Amino acid sequence: MLLFQQNINIVKVFYQIIILLLYLFIKFCYMKLFFTSIFSFFFLVQLTTGQDIHFSQFYASPLTLTPANTGNYDGDWRIMNNYRRQWGSFSSPPIPYTTISFGIDKSLYLRKDKLSFGFLILNDESSTAELAINKIFGSIAFHKILGNHSFNIGIQGGFVMKSVLPENLTFPNQFDNTTGYFNSDLSSGETTVGEQISYMDLNAGISWSGKLGNFVPDVGISLFHINQPKESFLDKDNKLSMRKVIHAGGKYYIQSRYFIYPNFLLMEHSKASDMLVGSNFGYILPSEVSKVKNIFMGVYFRDGISRNPDSFIGVVGANLFNVDLGISYDFNVSDLKVATNYKGGFEISLIYTVPSTKLTKITIPCDRF
């Protein structure tokens, strides 16, 4: 019995250390990251991207996963912030690819149903080419509530801006066979390389979420770039193809202290495909111990389906003061591991949810006088 009590004390000390570290991280880093996201969007002009923005913690980026997630949570309103940094090992000095997103959403109650509105900004920067993407999106979703089930449909529309500095780009015609390097003084062979493009973009999605005993699942499908906008720096009629997404996940509670949170994502965009699968494993702390509701850790695997395996992803996180914090790192295992030395991407997700203040209407019969 004494040995058991000692083990319990060791576990408590371990959890207290984790709680303290997470608290210090949020206290000193969250506001900095929060304002960095907004600052980056409004003031960083020369940024980059080459493909659709994606996060390893896709389940912690609701508005980029599907428009149907707008307002699909229990609370009055919600703020989301994601930061990703990857591929810094490809250049010297390191110039990584960075992605920042900031979102906010809120719901209006229509008796049992909900009508939700959201706002999302994204900024993506891709290394030395100084190719940039900035997105501003608004979304709206309707949630039909039937008992423990919610059927959700959402649309998302907005404006996409891309910019590039042509002098920092190299093309096949500029490869110098005598030196074995690209020579920017050689002709690129391209007649026109624009510096900026912009277009409207439209996305839509549907999902179902519910409560089945101890299991709280969520399943959905979504389509991005439905309007297939024209996208080309070379003044060509290149249309952006639709991206199809299927996602599924949910928390399964074991007894009253433990839960597992499996997640699955499948994306297909033109000839590229991406699959992410894995699970988080969590522990719910007693309310009298601290204000930390739960802590978790997880492992995920990313695969290209039609190509070699891409990466393993480790995740740790917690819920503290109504903030869901996730920290992850991608360990590259593809053919690029020779160049990256297994280094992939570092990612942080933060979701702050204001608890619901909706009152449940209760009819109390009374005598009339």
What does this structure look like?
The protein has 369 residues and is mainly beta. It has one domain: Porin (Beta Barrel). The protein has 3 helices and 16 strands. A 14-stranded antiparallel beta barrel has the order 1-2-3-4-5-8-9-10-11-12-13-14-15-16. A two-stranded antiparallel sheet has the order 6-7. The N terminus is likely disordered.
Write the layout of secondary structure elements.
Blueprint: H1 2-43, H2 62-65, E1 77-86, E2 97-110, E3 113-126, E4 131-146, E5 149-163, E6 175-176, E7 181-182, E8 196-210, E9 215-224, E10 243-254, E11 258-269, E12 272-284, E13 292-303, E14 309-320, E15 323-332, H3 337-340, E16 343-354
Antiparallel strand pairs: 1-2, 1-16, 2-3, 3-4, 4-5, 5-8, 6-7, 8-9, 9-10, 10-11, 11-12, 12-13, 13-14, 14-15, 15-16
